[in-house]
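Exercise 7. Given the encoded structure of a 401-residue chain, write a plausible sequence.
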């Protein structure tokens, strides 16, 4: 597995051409493969791309532009664009990623215009240059084999933009839909900063927005320039590549919800916390005895959850427990690579979790649910020791699971 981590810094913003040019500036060796990949799509036969060095008097990098006849407004149905990709001779991996980027775009348009997915018409995004951006981005993402992506806060942009639907506010409605749950900021500059294609490419990467990352070695950077200009700032997307020092561990951002309960029976609190635990996005629920106000015995409840589900989880806490408020914070946690495996002992199939430690060693743990079916402490202890040691000795690569 590759240990390369790429951080996305949308200084000027992010668009399809900016992402492609930044990737080519960082990994120029993939230029020829990308151009050959474009030849796999017949509808792009008349398209030519230009990859040129660019210097805005502050930074140097690359610009990516598409040339060809009739690059104006196009109206293409989402299903027909999917067929174009499916009928191409690109690799299956590139087809799947390009199709996923298109799906994100179509879902956003469907939500904005209130139509079914198969009725979506893509306008600006349906043009040959946007399709070229998507296909090139998909190829480069697969070619580099990045293990993790992260991203800084995204500039929202100000003003209006002309579209096939008339004048629209910025960020464009489809971009708003695509960036839901992502951190954004307003730096006061007018203009479109995130395009629908750029937002869809970003969503396909599932980037982390944590401010902390594990120890890494800087190995390079790439700059991709957009066509617009901004006063006092380079319109550039910077990609910074790192090599993970501890590739088995990574930081991720999660939400922590906390509250105390001192007037709900233990039996009913258990029922409420079980329902919270079963909620989508909840990672863990912990109860801790504590002394509250007026030296009353209380229960401190701590819940870990996905950030994009925090409002639903908080509402459930207020519904299922007697607490009057929930404290919410976002924290970073460091997690190990892990996999769920099964071990065939000959007598039984035993499920385990295997984790890769920072020193490269593997540790295994038999699932407690399986142990609960075995009578006798000594039998459980013996099975656990023997099976875990066998799996730890035999596991060399978590990717095979």
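Solution.
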């Amino acid at each position: 597995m590759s240990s390369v981590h790429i951080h996305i810094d949308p200084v000027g913003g992010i668009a399809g051409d900016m992402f492609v040019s930044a990737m080519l500036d960082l990994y120029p060796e993939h230029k020829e493969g990308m151009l050959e990949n474009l030849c796999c799509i017949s509808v792009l036969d008349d398209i030519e791309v230009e990859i040129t060095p660019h210097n805005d008097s502050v930074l140097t990098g690359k610009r990516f532009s598409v040339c060809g006849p009739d690059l104006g407004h196009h109206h293409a149905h989402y299903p027909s664009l999917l067929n174009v990709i499916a009928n191409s001779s690109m690799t299956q991996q590139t087809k799947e990623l390009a199709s996923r980027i298109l799906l994100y775009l179509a879902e956003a348009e469907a939500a904005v215009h209130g139509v079914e997915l198969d009725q979506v018409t893509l306008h600006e995004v349906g043009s040959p240059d946007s399709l070229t951006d998507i296909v090139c981005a998909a190829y480069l993402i697969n070619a580099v084999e990045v293990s993790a992506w992260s991203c800084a806060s995204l500039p929202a942009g100000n003003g209006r933009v002309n579209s096939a639907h008339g004048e629209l506010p910025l960020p464009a409605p489809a971009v708003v839909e695509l960036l839901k749950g992502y951190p954004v900021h307003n730096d006061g500059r007018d203009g479109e900063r995130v395009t629908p294609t750029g937002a869809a490419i970003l969503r396909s990467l599932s980037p982390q927005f944590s401010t902390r990352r594990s120890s890494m070695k800087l190995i390079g950077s790439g700059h991709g320039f957009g066509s617009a200009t901004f006063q006092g700032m380079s319109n550039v997307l910077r990609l910074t590549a790192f090599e993970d020092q501890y590739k088995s561990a990574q930081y991720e951002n999660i939400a922590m919800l906390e509250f105390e309960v001192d007037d709900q029976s233990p039996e009913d609190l258990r029922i409420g916390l079980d329902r919270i635990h079963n909620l989508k996005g909840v990672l863990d629920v912990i109860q801790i005895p504590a002394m509250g106000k007026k030296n009353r015995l209380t229960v401190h409840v701590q819940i870990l959850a996905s950030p994009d589900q925090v409002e639903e989880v908080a509402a459930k806490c207020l519904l299922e427990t007697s607490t009057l408020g929930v404290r919410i914070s976002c924290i970073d946690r460091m997690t190990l690579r892990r996999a769920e495996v099964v071990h065939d002992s000959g007598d039984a199939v035993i499920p385990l979790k295997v984790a890769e430690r920072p020193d490269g060693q593997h540790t295994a743990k038999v699932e407690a649910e399986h142990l609960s079916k075995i009578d006798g402490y000594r039998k459980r202890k013996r099975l656990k020791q023997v099976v875990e040691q066998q799996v730890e000795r035999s596991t060399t690569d978590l990717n095979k699971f």
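Remark. The chain has three domains: 4-247, 250-335, 338-400. Students should compare their own answers with the one above.
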